[in-house]
Specification:
Two copies of one chain form a homodimer.
Chain A lengths: L3 E7 L1 H5 L6 H11 L3 E8 L3 H13 L4 E5 L10 H9 L3 E3 L1 H16 L10 H5 L2 E3 L3 E3 L8 E6 L2 E6 L3 H11 L1 H8 L3 E9 L4 H14 L4 E5 L9 E9 L2 H21 L4 E4 L1
Parallel strand pairs in A: 1-2, 1-3, 3-8
Antiparallel strand pairs in A: 4-5, 6-7, 7-8, 9-11, 9-12, 10-11
Chain lengths: 271, 271
């Protein structure tokens, strides 16, 4: 069974249309690659009520891993952690290890001349105030540590919204934790490119293969119509073991090839 | 009062990480520009149960306008309209005007040699089967019409996932409807660039202006630390009338300038 995962992206700038949220896409690729399954992603505003509500609903759905992005910085509208603490009924407390991380970052930044001084102002201290029971995750790029929190059977991983910081924490501080969380899940896909620009002609083949192989996900994708336009058909599967997943994919692929041939649709490429 | 809006983006490919969802960002920009406010966007899989549930929750929150993207094509996994019909307790029926739109598109495509024939196969007919009471929206780019549906005080606008088709319907078929829906809403923003790479130094000014001007949204954004890194501070406001919104922004901007000056943080640019 794949580990169910949700992403909650927080920040008014995403919904004003000021910033394109690229973090969700990046996380989806990584989580899928680890064998997990992302069921839902929600983009919300910097509203503590809504942050708490969306988080609790994801927990209530039995989601195994929840990633949040955004709202960890030094300003008052960075309120992910306080909203989370309120929703989970946990006090906020200054975390000594998180404070040490923040302090070390500002010492480094001040030495390099990037900030004027290394003093722990209230705004900088704010980034070390975590919900009780949280574990800080070292941020190799910026000042705000990531945060890991376990609530019942759910693991909540709270990451900054700046993509370089999110990716830095994910790759440098989370790898062993994620391996343990996602375990031995295996995901694979095959992509066929066909010399046919009309999705409605492919539909009978795609639908028949999907019905015959419910454990494989079959999707064709149209881009536009026209001469030279080719369609992509993606077969994907996940499971506990590599052999099982690859076997399923091979069987579905063979049937799809047979059916496309019967429709006189040439396959240009398989990868 | 700004017209509350939500976006529901549908498609496994978005959550597998195969495709970056750019439609949500594009819609957020347009809706904000029309004076609307996007409160939430949800990315979900091609799961009829989940599609129905997310749609009903948005309606129950009293959302005035809901956009959905994706799942309108000819294949069986394009199930947005059937999921919507089930959730709203409406039968699905072939819509004569939608069928005419689909037919005309395939005649045009066949004449241009882009598809082999113009015949209305079951897969093509599927795109004209809409929930009862729906209104089709002409698609100038592809075959699947968009769909408009009113449910109580909520207007649901269902668009294809292919960006060119979504944008084509939005700009060619929706403009008068959106003007009416979003009415006279007005949105404006000012962006300051400051010569300071340390968000924690700015935080006292940003937080004080936010507290003194709750009707203006103030956000600073850090990209990374380092010499030559500059921060952007965005002030934005919305309201019924242009003068009122511009007045609020000017007052908040003046106070922010004063406070940055007091902190010896140079303003490089105001736009």
């Amino acid at each position: 069974m794949s580990v169910t995962t949700e992403i909650i992206a927080i920040g008014n700038e995403l919904l004003i249309g000021d910033v394109q949220d690229t973090n969700t896409h990046w996380l989806c690729q990584r989580i899928t690659g680890l064998g997990g399954i992302v069921l839902r992603a929600t983009l919300i505003r910097d509203d503590p009520q809504v942050i708490g509500e969306v988080l609790l609903q994801a927990i209530q759905r039995g989601t195994r891993v929840i990633f949040t992005t955004g709202g960890l910085g030094p300003t008052a509208d960075d309120l992910t952690l306080s909203a989370m603490a309120a929703a989970l009924g946990r006090p906020l407390e200054e975390h000594p290890e998180a404070l040490r991380m923040v302090q070390e970052t500002y010492v480094r930044l001040a030495q390099a001349g990037y900030v004027a001084h290394a003093e722990l102002t209230p705004e900088r201290r704010k980034m070390a105030i975590l919900p009780a029971g949280a574990q800080p995750l070292y941020n190799p790029v910026g000042a705000a540590p990531g945060v890991l929190l376990r609530e019942g059977g759910t693991t909540i991983i709270t990451l900054p919204g700046v993509p370089a910081e999110l990716q830095g924490i994910f790759e440098q501080s989370l790898t062993p934790i994620l391996r343990e969380l996602y375990g031995q899940g295996y995901y694979a896909e095959r992509v066929l490119v066909v010399d046919c620009g009309d999705e409605s002609s492919l539909a009978p083949a795609v639908d028949a293969v999907q019905r015959a192989h419910p454990e494989v996900y079959v999707k064709s994708r149209a881009k536009a119509y026209g001469p030279g336009v080719r369609l992509k058909i993606t077969l994907s599967a996940r499971g506990d073991a590599r052999d099982e997943v690859e076997g399923r994919l091979s069987r579905a692929l063979k049937e799809l090839q047979r059916r496309l041939e019967a429709l006189h649709i040439p396959i240009v490429q398989i990868s």
